[in-house]
Structures are given as C-alpha cells and as structure tokens.
Amino acid sequence: MTGYAMFDDMSQFHAWLAERELANEYRVSVTSLDSLDGWRTDPETGNIHHHSGRFFSVIGVNVDADSRTPAAWSQPIILQPEIGILGILAKRVDGTTYCLMQAKMEPGNINLLQLSPTVQATRSNFTRVHGGSAVPYLEYFRTPRRGRPVFDSLQSEQGSWFLGKRNRNMIVEVEEEVPVGENFCWLSTGQLAELMRIPNLVNMDARTVLSGVSFLTGDRHQRDGEARHPLGHILSWFTEVKSQQQLKRSIVPLRELPDWKRSRGTIHRLDGRHFSVIGVDVRASDREVRSWSQPMFRPSARGVIAFLGRHFDGTFHVLVHARTEAGTADVVEMGPTVACIPDNYAGAVDAERPRYLDVVLGASPSQLLVDILHSEEGGRFYHAENRYLVIDVGEDFPAEPPYGYCWLTVDQLAGFIRYGNHVNVGARCLLSCMTDLISQEATP
C-alpha cells in the first residue's frame, strides 16, 4: 500500500497527530455577525446569506410538533439544501480492514484538529465555489469512481439546527495502491474503535460514516429470533408513529422570531437558553481556502445523548425514541432515548422535562457501558459537545415502553442505517461508540 502508515501502537498515531497540528497554522476568533467577510444580512428579513448564494443561509422557522413539549416554538435554523459527501476509503490488508482517515481542522472543534473521513466536503466545496484547491480523493466517491461502494446512503444531519439537511455517507473499498497525503493515515477498524473512546478525537462526520462499517466487515450476526420484536413489528411501530404525529413548519424572517434578539453582533434567546448564532474568522494553512469567515451556532451548554438498554432473553436491546426535531425531513427518525441539553430544563416541572432524563442523569458508574465526550459538526457548530452514554438499566426496568418508544437490538438499529431518514445522527454516532457491544452480541 503506497505510503501505508501502520501504527504498531497508538503512541505512534498520537505522535503523528501532534506533528500534523504543529505543521499547520490554525486560528479561530469569535467576531460580530455584522462584520463577516463574504456574508450579508438581508435588510428586510434579517436572514444571513453568503454573497455567492451558495454554502448555507441562516433563516427563521416556526415549528408545530404535537409530540414535543412545548408543542410550538420558533428558532433560527441553517438552510443548506446541498448534499455533501462524507466518504471513507477502506482497504483489506492480511484480513484486516483499514480506513483512510484525515486529520482535519474545523473552526468549531474544541481542540480544532480531529480525525475526519477521507472526504468531508459540501457540494459548494467540492465544486470549488470558493475558488480554492481541489478536494483530495474525491475521484473515489464520484461516478465513475475508482473502487467498490459497500455503504452508500443519504443520511440526515442535526435536525435541531439544520432544515432537512442530508449528506451522502459512503464507504468505498479499494484494491489499488492509494497515495497517502501528509494529513492522512490508515487506521484499522480496531484502532478506530479504540480511538472512539478518547474524548473529542474522532469527529462527528467520521462517526456517522463509521456507524455503517458493519456493512463493510460483514458483521451481521443477529437474527430476528434473538430480538424482542421482529422486523415487521418495528416497521409497523415506526410507520404508525410517523403517520400519527404531526410536524408543521413555516419559514419566517429571522428578525421576526419571538423570544430571539440580534444585538452585540450575535443572535440569542432572551433567556439565554438553547443556542446563539455567532460569527467567526478562521485561518487554516492546510484547508482548500486558507482563510474565511462564517456564522456558527453555539449551544448554551453541554448536551446529553443517551440510550437506555437492558437484556431480553440474554440479548441486549436499546430503547429507541421516534423523535421529531425542527428540521426533521420526514416527521420522525429513530433516535436515542434521550437527547437534550439538561441545563435548558433546570427548574422545570416533571411534565416539561424530557422523558427518562432523570434516569440518565442518575445512572451509577456501574451502569455505564459507554460514557464519552464527543464534539458535534465543527463546520457549523461552535464548541458543541455532547456526553454520549449507553446505560444498562437492568431487567427490572419496565419492558413495555410508552408511546413513541420501542426496544431494538443493536444490530436491528444498525440495519436501518442502510436506509436514509430512518436513524438520526445522534443514534448513528452512539452506534459508532458501541463496537464492543456489537461484538459481544455477535459472538455465537
């Protein structure tokens, strides 16, 4: 494998990553929305657009969702109708599967440099609207491509902050020799599973693609008979929830949003909760464009994304929530049991708190199967960090869930990733953190 970098131990990888950080110049500074180079605010609507008309816009939306509390709200949201590519090149060497990963800087990352997919690019980027350099390895992911696609699916992004946004998640297997760029390295799937346990190292875009790695490795061992519910039951449950719940949205001018205010160069809620919209100036010596400015969404506090789980007849299941967000494309998607920013509910009465949030926050260390901090999409969200949890609540936990929830095996949920708009990004990222659980359940 040309330029193949096999790390005999992970200390070599960490030394390589530190060297890549020192080799490049990165600088991010928070600035006013009023002074963003290349962006304009519409004087009538207050909406924020790029001067090219491409990339993305920040607009306002009114939402009415009868499954949420409160059932109606208004917020800023990102409109980015382009479909980008999140793609990983894979190669088998002596029976081991390796993935070509990139050390990539994103302005919103807490530690700036994280592991990303081989290709992580919006359509505006890979069509070079910015006038910058070409995206490396793009030819492996666009027709006529060089390689065999083993996972290829349109997947949703964060519905809380994107309006119907989708990206193409791909894993392409190659047999040919692949030159390795200076910011790229080959890592085995086992090494990636180990790195997934390190906070803020494997970025969100890599995690969502890696949730489909079982389609590459062939680890599809679970049988319907080992699950509490057969596939037909799950499909009927999901279809029923989708058909009964309502999601109504209307795009409105950003300046007319109730409870939101633009002042001091930011857009924020009057109560300081949820998130704000800020501006950043960025410099990165190894990006297609060396410097740029952009709006970003900054959450008010750290979030929690969690699965409650328990065994049924010896097989581990997770409690999946059919969840609606402001930007969900098709009413609901299969999501984690809990996904929220707990600080937003400080002082709220029980009826206003997300179901099962107190179970998650009250879990003991012995119940935690997964407990790791990870950053969210650093290209649009500034210092957005969630605590990812999988909690074994034990077999005394109620077997019959309330409306909108269903028990699935880990393998059943992973199987739905093959199809777009079924499993939301929070659940996909949690699945990528659950490699050990998948391996345990797959053992005959």
UniProtKB/TrEMBL annotation:
Q: Where in the numbering of this chain does the dTDP-4-dehydro-6-deoxy-alpha-D-glucopyranose 2,3-dehydratase domain appear?
A: 11-212, 233-434
Q: Which domain of life is it from?
A: Bacteria
Q: Where are the transmembrane segments?
A: none
The molecule here is called NDP-hexose 2,3-dehydratase
